[in-house]
Amino acid sequence: MSRTQAGLGLTRPEIAVLLAQSKNVVQQDLLTSSVPDEPVFASALSTYFPPRIRAQLSEEIRDHRLAREIVATKVADDLINHVGPGLIYQLEERLDVKTPAVARAYAVVRAVFDIDELWSDAEQRTDITPVERWNLLHALQHFIEHTASWILRRRPVPLDVEAEIARYRPSVHKLVASRPHPTTFDETTERLRFLAEAFALIETARCHGCPVETAAAIHTRIDTTLDLTWLTNRLEDHATTNWWDAMAAATVRDDLAERHHELVGAILHLATDGEHEVGVWQDRAEGAISRFSRMIAELRRDGVVDVARACTAGAELKLLVRSTHTLITGDGNT
Questions:
Q1: Which site from 157, 171, 226, 252 is most exposed, i.e. has the minimal number of CB atoms within 10 Å?
Q2: How many CB atoms lie within 10 A of CB 219?
Q3: Residue 166 Cα to chain centre, angstroms
């Protein structure tokens, strides 16, 4: 308590001890599950050994008597090193899932988005300052949290990791290929914010039978119209003071993202003759859009978006979504 009041955190040795203990806890949780036996995690066993041993003793490695322990240790190390113990605990508490479920969701995210490559690039970049590098790694952790959370909330349980990778990886690669490669710190963090919505964009596109690039373009234009990225960024900048505040902020952020994607789907419904134009929505929902925009303008003047303000904005966004649905069905009870 005295350290918190003084604005001080843990020392490096204390952090090292906590990380080691966290890895042991995660490893034990994984050992009591089927994760070490699942084929998708088999690479964790082989990569534990040097290349020459892998080449000469592949069968012996596969039948190693400590194979499960090695896999559990490697997966635990990767989880803690990339997302930290706090994220695992937060996902478990907020979504009522266990460590093995988090490990499976992370395995999907890791494979679909090439997390190891993104992490290595961030650590090795020489064109950014040390502070920017730290911020970029933090943004990458936040990206992993957001995408893993979506998988845990939206996909069937138990999660079939290999099937989920096959479901999303090709479309994610299309999205990445459709956008220019980032060269600056700001462009890199912006790409991460965009890719954090990839899973939902892919599902929206499939639901409406359109290319994922079309859904992505509409998502971006809605964002430009409503300033939703500014809203969520300000919420994320808000310093949470306790566990409840952090949980509430994460929940509100997820809700804002879901309403955003709901608008994408509604606008696709509004389109006629294959014209997926946000302009149609802007004309028909002008009053509701103006009402929401006035609230955002007020928040901009205040410069603060805490959980309470974000909740209010979320409720206003829900009204805008409902108004848009009414344009489709003519039924205000949608």
A1: 157
A2: 22
A3: 18
Are 29 and 23 in contact, with CB atoms under 8 Å apart?
A: no
Q: How far is residue 146's CA from residue 92's CA, in Å, rounded to a whole number?
A: 14
Question: Which of helix, strand or coil describes residue 272?
Answer: strand
User: pTM above the 0.90 mark?
Assistant: no
Q: Which residues contact residue 306 at a Cβ distance below 8 angstroms, ignoring those fewer than 6 apart?
A: 235, 238
CA distance 265 to 270: 9
How many Å apart are CA 158 and CA 100, to the nearest integer?
10
Give which of 106, 48, 100, 101 is closest to 79, Cα–Cα: 106
Q: Phi first, then psi: what are they for 50, rounded to 5°?
A: -60, 155
Q: 194: which 2 tokens?
A: 């965009």
pLDDT digits (tens, 9 = 90+) for 163-189: 999 999 999 998 998 888 888 999 999
Distance CA 221, CA 278 (A): 7
What would the two tokens of residue 219 be? Answer: 């998502």
Does the pLDDT of residue 46 top 70, yes or no? yes
Q: What amino acid is encoded at 184 in this protein?
A: T
The DSSP line for 235-269 is HHHS---SHHHHHHHHHHHHHHHHHHHHHHHHHHH
CB of 152 within 8 A of CB of 94?
no
Q: Could you read off the pLDDT of 85-96 as tens digits, one per residue?
A: 878 888 888 899
Could you tell me the two tokens for 173? 């690669």
What is the rounded distance in angstroms from the CA atom of residue 173 to the CA atom of residue 113?
8
Q: Tokens 């004309």 correspond to what residue?
A: 283
Distance from first CA to last CA of the chain, Å, rounded? 49
Residue 334's pLDDT band (boundaries 50, 70, 90)?
very low
